[in-house]
Design a protein that fits this description.
By secondary structure, the chain is α+β, with helices and mostly antiparallel strands. The chain has one domain (about 5-140): 2-Layer Sandwich (Yope Regulator, Chain: A). It contains 3 helices and 6 strands. The chain has a 6-stranded antiparallel beta sheet with strand order 1-2-3-4-6-5. The chain is globular, with a radius of gyration of 16 Å. The N and C termini lie far apart (about 55 Å).
Length: about 140
Amino acid sequence: MENKIEKMTQFLADNKIECFDIQKLEDEHHTTIFRSRMEVKGQLLPMALLMDDSVYVMLQVQIAPQVIDEAKLKELAGAINNMNNNVRPFKFTVSEKGDLMLNACITAENNTFNPALANAIMGEAVKFLDDQYGNIMEAVWAK
């Protein structure tokens, strides 16, 4: 039986999708990171699809790197909560480094993982960000 990582790698090869760098970590969860970028409003946003032995696959898109300090996080908390309450497939977080991130969690065991669904969710993330990027960045840069 193929695992999620093998299925995703085969999907990319079969569909001639060559924009991913694949990084295998030497950790206890056998994590593999599929790294790429999303073009949104002329910006190239770093993106990663993280897979491991768990039933979770995580899509992460870095919307704004290292711009959210503690003071800005306090200002943005309401806007982030509002987005998280109104946007079902995606959730927004701020990393320890102050990166504003868009996340989507896909649940799938090895035998149920569908790489086409993961690809479709990445496509939905691009559509969402294309539509909302200006509003999101306006909130980030508001004084």
